[in-house]
Each structure stands twice: as structure tokens, then as C-alpha cells.
Amino acid sequence: MADFSLNLKRLRKKSNLSQDALAEQLCVSRQTVSSWERGKSYPDLDILMQISEILHTTPNELLYPPLENKGSHTNEIFRKGLFNKVAFAVFICGFGLGLYNGSQAYASAPNTLSWHFIFSDALKYWVPALLMGLLSMGLQTVLSLLYEIKDNE
């Protein structure tokens, strides 16, 4: 029944009603509405039907958790962590490009092959890859939090 408490508060605010206004329409005290919203008590079936009429909703929407919006493609992208996957791909590509461009093979003598690594050449790829990956991860976090805040309203 914890869903009822959260749903009542969310739907009451969505209808721009104060606890006092809702209580007045239901002929109960404001403390009773507050008790319902805190999950300390619950209304009987008749009152539940009145609440659903006042808030222009169904009893099911009051009693059960809100259904996920399956049509929201953007929301699914953030929930699945697409930007984190992109960040991981950028890290891997940047690391590989840095290794490739920092590695140099040369022949110091006939029939010999030597190899050395130039760190500064690799940094030209590693630093931007790191920054772009971190930016992508940060963007994922910020957008996820914004959608979470939006869902809680």
C-alpha cells in the first residue's frame, strides 16, 4: 500500500490541490489526508472512489505503481545506459589509437627490428578519448537524474 501514499500525493499535486482542499471535498480533516500520504492509515473503499473522482483518475492508478511509458524511446535510452556504452567504446578506441600511433618500429641494423613507444604521440589520442568518455558518462548521469525527477513529479 506504499504505492497508494505516493500516488495520492503525486496525483493531488498534479491536480493543484492542497491537503486542506482535498480534505474539505472529502469531508475529512487535513490530518487524515496527511496520514494517508504518509502511509499511516488508508481510506475505506467509498472514500477511495471519491478521491479517484476528485483527482480525475481511476482507483487502480491510486493503488498501484505507475505504469512505465513504453512508448518513450528516449527514456529507454537513458535507462539502458546508452551513453555509458558509448563512453566505453570511446575509451577503447582512443586507447587503441594511442597505442597504434605511439608505437614505432624501426630497423637499427640490417635484419633487426626494434620498437619504441612515444608517449607524447599516444597522449594526443588518450586525453581526448578520456575527456569525451567522461563527458558521455556525465551526460548519462545528469539525464538519468532529470528523468528520475520528472518521473517522481
Question: Explain this structure to me?
Answer:
This protein has 153 residues and is mainly α. The protein folds into two domains: 62 residues, lambda repressor-like DNA-binding domains (434 Repressor (Amino-terminal Domain)), CATH 1.10.260.40; 80 residues. 69% of the residues lie in helices and 5% in strands. Helix 2 packs across helix 3 and helix 7 runs antiparallel to helix 8. The mean pLDDT is 86.
Brief overview:
The protein has 153 residues and is mainly alpha-helical. It is built from eight helices and two strands; from the N terminus they run αααααααββα.
Topology:
Layout (H helix, E strand, L loop, with lengths): L1 H13 L4 H8 L3 H8 L7 H10 L4 H5 L9 H7 L2 H21 E4 L7 E4 L1 H34 L1
Antiparallel strand pairs: 1-2
Helix pairs in contact: 2-3, 7-8
Q: Which percent bin holds the helix content?
A: 55-70%
The whole-number mean of residue pLDDT values reads: 86
End-to-end C-alpha gap:
19 Å
Care to count the β-strands? 2
Q: Could you say how many structural domains there are in total?
A: 2
Overall, the morphology is rod-shaped
Order of helices and strands: HHHHHHHEEH
The SS-based structural class is mainly alpha
**Low-confidence sequence ranges:** none
Strand order of the largest sheet: 1-2
How many helix segments?
8
| Oligomer type | single chain
Main sheet properties: 2 strands, antiparallel
- The fraction of residues in strands falls at 5-15%
| Rg of Cα set | 29 Å
